[in-house]
UniProtKB/TrEMBL annotation:
It is found in: Endomembrane system. It holds the Pfam family Mem_trans. This is Auxin efflux carrier. It is a multi-pass membrane protein. GO terms for molecular function: auxin efflux transmembrane transporter activity. Keywords: Auxin signaling pathway, Membrane, Transmembrane, Transmembrane helix, Transport. Belongs to the auxin efflux carrier (TC 2.A.69.1) family. The chain crosses the membrane at residues 58-77, 84-107, 119-139. It comes from the Eukaryota.
Length: 219
């Protein structure tokens, strides 16, 4: 783990303390990572899994734990005076959606060998395809709703004669359309889908033999 944190510390210091990179250059690096590095990173890991040999008990346990945390946070946001849906989204991200590929793979490989690495990669694939997509949907839904509502409020204040008229919130289907367009432009989702499709094609022979064996056993 030392090389990872040394790189992170050098990156932070190069912007915060030494001024090697300007904020504009940092933004360009972030865009490079977002649109190229992370999607290709996801393809690399996802393409090497075997979809027919995944540990579905482990994946199910992980899903149950996330749903329990989600239910607790939703209850807190609805029933507590200090609760809010914005903080619920942040808390869910921090407590369940980890950077498992970068941090988890070295740790699990050192402690449990290849078995631990396989579990980390499987959970990361499910996280990227399902949970991160749902999180992206929630964030985009919230941001689109806030942005559109503010634009409507400005339009009402500037174009209506009676200042007491309230602006209407955008409809659910209109928000769905806006969110869908933004998600369609996100390269990370494509990276996971491409890697998973490659994994299915690469392991189709083994998959056919596995399902054929199960069918013959059931017969």
């Amino acid at each position: 783990m030392v090389p990872l944190y040394v790189a992170l510390l050098l990156g932070y210091g190069s912007v915060k303390w030494w001024g090697i990179f300007t904020p504009e250059q940092s933004d360009a690096i972030n865009r490079l990572v977002c649109y190229f590095t992370l999607p290709l990173f996801a393809v690399e890991f996802t393409a090497h899994i075997d979809p027919f040999e995944m540990n579905y008990r482990f994946i199910g346990a992980d899903a149950i734990s996330k749903l329990v945390i989600l239910a607790v946070l939703a209850f807190w946001a609805k029933c507590s005076s200090k609760g809010s849906y914005c903080w619920s989204i942040t808390s869910f991200s921090l407590s369940t959606l980890t950077n498992a590929l970068v941090v988890g793979v070295p740790l699990m490989k050192a402690m449990y060998g290849q078995v631990g690495v396989d579990l980390v990669v499987q959970s990361s694939v499910i996280q990227a395809i399902i949970w991160l997509t749902l999180l992206l949907f929630v964030l985009e839904f919230r941001r689109s709703g806030v942005t559109i509502t503010k634009e409507q409020e400005k339009d009402v204040e500037g174009n209506t004669e009676n200042g007491g008229e309230e602006s209407n919130r955008p409809s659910f289907w209109y928000l769905m359309k806006v969110v869908g367009m933004k998600m369609a432009m996100n390269p990370n989702s494509y990276g996971c889908m491409v890697g998973l499709a490659w994994a299915f094609v690469a392991n189709r022979t083994r998959g056919d033999g596995y399902w054929g064996h199960c069918y013959g056993f059931a017969w």
